[in-house]
């Protein structure tokens, strides 16, 4: 009897997790972005974005406009960066395809992002590097995730709370 | 609700739900008020815009392989009042002085920023600068601007406390030419 | 003669609480006094009241907070007002006040032998 209960509880947990996963992936499909919701990690866009703010991305625009805030990932560096488009150019490739090249800069940074880009590139490629443009914003809600990943006391505290709650509900 | 823990859970659950609803209502009200305020035609007075160019040879100024790259700088006068954009949901305004010039590739051409500024409060929304120097030394993907004609305009971005970001442009563009090479 | 002892599960928490024990033992021996005091239990009418207070107060607080912020042109007032309403509701609903315990449940008298029929 006990094992069955445990299995049912496990099944419920699996249902909750897979529903959340489906929602996340579905949102990624709609917005055409790998990570449609991001948490701001650095202060490079202050005073507009603070650490812990939540950004909603949209990636279905063919071209990014100047002044848009984009989230991009440089090839080879796994950290996504949220900065504003300073300059945009369009060039044609050898195979007649039009690429959009972008130069970005964080509002709170003194210089543009040239030093952050891949070694030989002077610009970002809209199709390859940009994860999406920021369309909507929610303040401070994501600060919990930052606390958990960076603060070891918060991590222990959360684990303690979770352990406590599983113990108490089972009586 | 019979247990303290249950009451805490139920209360925080409901509070969170209502908070989210409040955010959504604020967002919708912001969209409606932006639409009603006719923020698409705020006048701006751009005058005495002068673009100057010189050649640079370092990578931080766009030079590739040591070849000379034409860099440009701007000098301008600007007079505008962006106070109508400041509502209860405005966190900051980001304004950019943008030059748009034709390229052989696209209809709308390339867009570059010469100067930007952040306005955080309504009392600073009145911008009046004379002989202002641009912040950035701007270069094109090609080696030179080749004396093209550019349209210089002022774009703004409204950052809300919660909701959608709004973008717009002031009324008052000016045509300038890059100096001939 | 079979005598069926029927009981209705009012709250699932009550039922899962004592799953390991015999199904009727909860009625004959509820939680000891000290434990239920720590849990902050309140009776059903009190739960209804607490539920109504949270829903009405928080909804009202949301509307007031929105108006305060909108009319004073400052969104921070919305945040502060709504936080204040949240704290007010929490202080009214979470502690087990005596006005939540006005209608206690009357349990059936304890029997010396309980006849269980499969």
UniProtKB/TrEMBL annotation, chain B:
Belongs to the SPCS3 family. The chain crosses the membrane at residues 12-36. The keyword Coiled coil does not apply. Signal peptide: none annotated. It is found in: Endoplasmic reticulum membrane. It comes from Komagataella phaffii (strain GS115 / ATCC 20864) (Yeast). InterPro entries: SPC3. GO terms for biological process: protein targeting to ER; signal peptide processing. This is Signal peptidase subunit 3. Pfam families: SPC22. Essential component of the signal peptidase complex (SPC) which catalyzes the cleavage of N-terminal signal sequences from nascent proteins as they are translocated into the lumen of the endoplasmic reticulum. Essential for the SPC catalytic activity, possibly by stabilizing and positioning the active center of the complex close to the lumenal surface. Essential for viability. GO terms for cellular component: signal peptidase complex. Keywords: Endoplasmic reticulum, Membrane, Signal-anchor, Transmembrane, Transmembrane helix. It is a single-pass type II membrane protein.
From TrEMBL, chain C:
Signal peptide: none annotated. The chain crosses the membrane at residues 53-71, 77-100. Its main location: endoplasmic reticulum. Keywords: Endoplasmic reticulum, Membrane, Transmembrane, Transmembrane helix. Belongs to the SPCS1 family. Component of the signal peptidase complex (SPC) which catalyzes the cleavage of N-terminal signal sequences from nascent proteins as they are translocated into the lumen of the endoplasmic reticulum. Dispensable for SPC enzymatic activity. This is Signal peptidase complex subunit 1. The lineage of its organism: Eukaryota, Fungi, Dikarya, Ascomycota, Saccharomycotina.
């Amino acid at each position: 009897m006990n094992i069955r209960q445990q299995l049912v509880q496990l099944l419920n947990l699996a249902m909750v997790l897979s529903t959340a996963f489906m929602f996340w992936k579905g949102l990624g499909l709609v917005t055409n972005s790998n990570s449609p919701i991001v948490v701001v990690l650095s202060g490079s866009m202050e005073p507009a974005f603070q650490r812990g703010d939540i950004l909603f991305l949209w990636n279905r625009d063919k071209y990014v406009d100047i002044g848009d805030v984009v989230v991009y990932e440089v090839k080879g560096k796994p950290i996504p960066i949220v900065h504003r488009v300073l300059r945009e150019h369009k060039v044609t490739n050898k195979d007649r395809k039009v690429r959009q090249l972008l130069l970005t800069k964080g509002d709170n940074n003194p210089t543009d992002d040239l030093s952050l880009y891949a070694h030989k590139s002077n610009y970002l490629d809209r199709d390859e590097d940009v994860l999406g443009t920021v369309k909507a914003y929610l303040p401070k809600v994501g600060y919990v995730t930052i606390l958990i990943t960076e603060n070891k006391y918060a991590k222990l505290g959360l684990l303690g709370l979770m352990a406590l709650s599983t113990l108490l509900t089972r009586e | 609700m019979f247990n303290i823990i249950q009451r805490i859970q139920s209360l925080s659950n409901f509070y969170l739900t209502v908070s989210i609803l409040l955010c959504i209502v604020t967002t919708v009200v912001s969209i409606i008020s932006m639409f009603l305020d006719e923020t698409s035609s705020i006048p701006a007075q751009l005058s005495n815009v002068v673009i100057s160019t010189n050649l640079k040879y370092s990578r931080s100024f766009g030079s590739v392989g040591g070849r000379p790259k034409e860099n440009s700088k701007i000098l301008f006068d600007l007079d505008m009042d962006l106070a109508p954009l400041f509502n209860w949901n405005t966190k900051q305004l980001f304004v950019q002085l943008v030059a748009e010039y034709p390229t052989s590739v696209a209809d709308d051409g390339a867009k570059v920023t010469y100067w930007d500024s952040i306005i955080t409060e309504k009392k600073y929304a009145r911008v009046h600068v004379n002989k202002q120097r641009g912040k950035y030394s701007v270069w094109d993907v090609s080696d030179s601007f080749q004396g093209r004609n550019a349209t210089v305009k002022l774009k703004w971005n409204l950052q809300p406390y919660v909701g959608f970001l709004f973008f717009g442009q002031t009324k008052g563009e000016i045509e300038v030419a890059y100096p001939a090479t | 003669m079979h005598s069926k002892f029927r009981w209705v599960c009012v709250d699932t928490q009550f039922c899962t609480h004592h799953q390991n024990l015999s199904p009727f033992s909860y009625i004959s021996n509820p939680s000891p006094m000290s434990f239920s005091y720590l849990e902050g239990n309140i009776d059903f009418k009190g739960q209804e009241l607490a539920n109504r207070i949270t829903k009405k107060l928080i909804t009202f607080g949301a509307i007031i907070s929105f108006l305060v912020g909108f009319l004073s042109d400052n969104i921070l007032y919305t945040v502060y007002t709504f936080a204040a309403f949240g704290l007010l509701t929490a202080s009214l609903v979470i502690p087990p006040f005596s006005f939540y315990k006005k209608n206690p449940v009357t349990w059936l008298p304890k029997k010396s032998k309980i006849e269980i029929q499969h």
